Amino acid sequence: MLLCILTGFSSGLPLYVLIQLLPAWFRDLGLDLKSIALFSFTTLPYTWKFIWAPLLDRSLSQKLGRRRLWALISQVILAILLVSLAPMDPSKNLAPIALIAFLICFASATQDIVLDAYRRELLSDEELGLGNSLFVNAYRLSSLVPGSLALILADTMPWSVSFTVTAAFMIVGIGTTLWMPEPKSDQSKSFSWKALILDPFLDLWKSKGTSGLILLLAFMLLYKLGDNMATALSTPFYMDLGFTKTDIGTVVKVASLWSSIVGGIVGGIIMLRIGINKSLWIFGVIQLLTILGFAALSQVGPDKSWLFAVVSAEYFGVGLGTAAFVAFVARSTTKAYTAAQLALLTSFAGLPRSFASASTGALIETMGYTPFFLLCTVLAIPGMLLLIWVAPWSQSSVASTASEAKKSK
Fold it and tell me: Residue 58 in 3-state DSSP?
């Protein structure tokens, strides 16, 4: 469980650099919302990671093992890329910054593949709910560095200091990788391209069936669509309302920290009692309703108490929903092909963050913030409806797992 916490922190840090620190940096230096939103395309590797994920199921080092080696490589590269942003100026170096952001996303996606697979191999099916809740909490906790500490520093110091300090926190991931044990591997000693590339996806198809796999992938795509769009430009939204960077770095991050941690812990406890399926229904409704808080905040304006309340509610709902969602995704894979299958499913889940989020800037400038958040609420409904087929309320998690195992056989 401690490893779930430490790897969660390392996994979340680079993502929050891309979706919180860079937008705040750009907005502070005068970039328009459309340009900032288009930077979402630099996060496309999160949606492509299933392409190279099978390669990460191969071991290149007997000493470090397949999981530890790939994790270490990606983490060292991330530290180098993050610190390379320090001397950059968006008004002069926008193209190089875009390239570095793309490479950060590629290395971050690679780290996610490895750490997701490691966690699945580390935990038993019974431990997935709690372990993934802790992972999600630590993932959210990592946002305090690029989304809080870095912004507070940027109010009184050059932005280069913020990026250097943020890069230094990758030491947490590097140190954890050097310390953590390599899990036992189900990998066959024989090598073939078919086994490497096709078998993970054929196994998923056979276990789910054609219609089941289509429904599963659609659910991955739509369950968090509304929430991802609503929060895609949250930092510029707060700045446009009139909040200072220090306000965002203190009020927003304190609110998001306590609520996401409590949400994740409560979610893990509830999942232990009622199972993953029912949790997805309950948490999904809460996650949907909290989007309306942003619409209300856009009408109220720069009121810190409202900001604290809205962000607290949002991250509590996200903490609940993400804990159940991540546990559901992990449960849907087989341990023999953990990395490839998790990468495929989470790639679909990440599509809205790249494609839909890229359109948010134009939508906001056309519609305004309030109608935009109402649209995000409506877009969250289709994902909830898919639960009827992918996670029926009346079917227990144990029954679901047993049914999938039977299909696989």
Answer: coil
